[in-house]
Amino acid sequence: MGRWTTRRKPTRTSTAYRNFFNSLSGKRKGRKVAPSRFRLRLPKVGDVLVRWSRALPSDPSSVTVIRDAAGRYFASFVVQSTDAPLPPVDSEVGIDLGLTHFAVLSDGRKVAAPKFLRRAARKLRRLQQDLARKQRGSQNGKKAVVKVACAHARVADTRRDWQHKLSTVIIRDNQAVCVEDLCVSGLGRTRLAKSVRDAGWASFTAMVEYKAARCGRAYLTAFFDTGEERQGKQRKRCPPGRPFAQTQENADRQGCATEAGGHDENGGGGAFDRTARVS
Fold first, then answer.
1. Do 246 and 257 touch, CB atoms closer than 8 A?
2. Per-residue pLDDT reduced to its tens digit, 138-174
3. By C-alpha distance, which of 207, 120, 138 is closest to 168?
4. For residue 36, what pLDDT is reported?
């Protein structure tokens, strides 16, 4: 009686693996298949599944893995990059930050305040109540802590994404940007502390400042001239009628006497004089 041998039919997985390695080695004709873009090889760790937020401009020299309170891991790379300035434009804009409207531009446009924390307050309140009912140190308590951290992380991520989009549009469409300088740390100790923290003025102005430096735009800071020392610097009022260059006191600060009379509907006060500082 003869011996019958059965031959297994190749599966789709085996065929895909064979075609992949044949493409890498050059045995398979056609376009070469690149290695997986969804894996990151770390020393002493191995391959890690990743989700790339952007393409790296050059080969990284080092990588740092960061874990946040929500249990998410991020890889931070050190790369060499060159800043490409944007083509010059003729428009300039001044930005008045506030609470009723997040920003009022000098051209009359108003940007509504999104109030991400206020919109998520109901869900955050429920998660905090669930956390308060859990026994401290228990497994359910640890899971509740992670849920609260994830909810706060979503609010922070949404606010950061919105600010990135707004700051990019402002820098792209204007050659010079003048932003109001607010004492956020002082306003954070008032009854409007929650709304001030929810607005995120400091992070927005930081985005506008570094994007202006990278794109070849001018960034200026306008502050209230109260005659008081703030942050260790005495800021004096510019004499009326003096030229711009004659009021320069420091090499990194230039003064001008621009009058911004009128009422700030976002909680700024009455008429005031402003001095612009080139950053």
1. no
2. 999 999 999 999 999 999 999 999 999 999 999 999 9
3. 207
4. 61
Backbone φ, ψ for residue 204 (5° rounding):
-70, -45
Encoded amino acid at 180, one letter:
E
> What are the phi and psi torsion angles at 102 (to 5°)?
-60, -40
Q: Which of 253, 100, 91 is nearest to 181 (CA)?
A: 253
Tokens of 142: 């640890």
Domain match, 126 and 161 both: yes
> What are the φ/ψ torsions at residue 39 (nearest 5 degrees)?
-130, 145
Smallest CA-to-CA distance from 146 within 134, 158, 164, 157 is with 134
Query: Which pTM value belongs to this model?
Result: 0.66
Using the 3D structure, point to which of 57, 82, 107 is the last residue of a domain. Answer: 82
Q: Is there a domain that residue 56 lies in?
A: yes
SS3 for 125?
helix
Distance in angstroms (rounded) separating the CA atoms of residues 107 and 105? 5
Side-chain-side CA neighbours of 61 within 13 Å: the count stands at 4
> Does residue 21 lie within any of the structural domains?
no
Q: Strands 258-260, 272-278: parallel, antiparallel or unpaired by DSSP?
A: antiparallel
Contact 171, 212 (CB under 8 A): yes
Q: How many domains does the chain have?
A: 2
Report helix, strand or coil for 154.
helix
Q: Please give the C-alpha separations between residue 260 and each of 7, 109, 187, in angstroms, as whole numbers.
A: 87, 17, 22
SS3 for 268? coil
CA–CA separation, 207 and 155 (whole Å)? 18
Helix-strand-coil split of the chain, %, nearest 5:
35, 20, 45
Domain for residue 158, yes or no?
yes
Q: Which segments of 98-138 does DSSP mark as H helices, in order? A: 116-119, 121-133
